[in-house]
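[Q] Does anyone have a clean C-alpha cell version of this?
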Amino acid sequence: MLTLHADSRGRALAVEGEWIADAGDVADLGAAHPRARVRKWPGILTPGLLSPYGTELLEEAYHPDPREADELGTEPLTGDALAALGLDDARWGGSARRAVQRMLAHGTVAAACEPMRNRAVKDAVRRSGLGVVGRLGRPGGVPALDPFAAGQPVDFLPPRERGSAARFAVFDVRDEAELAERGAGTCVATVLGGRLVYRRR
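[A] Here you go.
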C-alpha cells in the first residue's frame, strides 16, 4: 500500500514498499495518489541523520538493559567499566539492539562504522535495517546518540527523491535552524526500508 508522509510545511514523500515512489507538495501528491494512506507529522521531514559514531556507540559501548539499571545505570558504559563486564555474544547483541533503537529515536538512519569486528553486533545491526557506511579515520567531537550534541558538523543522507530508498526522519521543529538548536531529541518518527521503525509516543 502506498503511504504519503507529510510534514507541517506541506512537503511529502510517497512511499511504496522500500522505495520513494514520489516526492513533492502534499496537495499535488494527494491528487496524484488519491487512494494513498496519509500520515501527517508535526515538524519537518528530513533525509535522516548519518551518525559518525557507529563504532563507538555499537562496538565500544555497552547499553544496559533496563533490568540492569539499578546496578549499571542507564547510560552507555565504555572503557574500564565496559571491560569489567566481560560480555558474551548474547549481551553484545542485546546491547547493539538497544543502541540501534536509541539511535533511531534520534532520527539516525545510517551509521559510519569501521568494518565491524563483533559478529553479534554485526548481526543485530543487519537485522535492524540501520544503514552502515565506511569511514576514513576517527571522527572528532564526543560520541553521542544525538549527533547535534557531539560538537561537530552533522551529516544527513542525500535528499530523498523518486526512486531512492525510503529512509528518512521527522523532527518536531519549524526548520533546520531550530533542529540544530534543539537537537535530535525532537525526532517524532524514523522510517527505514519503508517501515516506521520509531514513533514517539
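[Q] Thanks! Anything notable?
[A] The mean pLDDT is 94.
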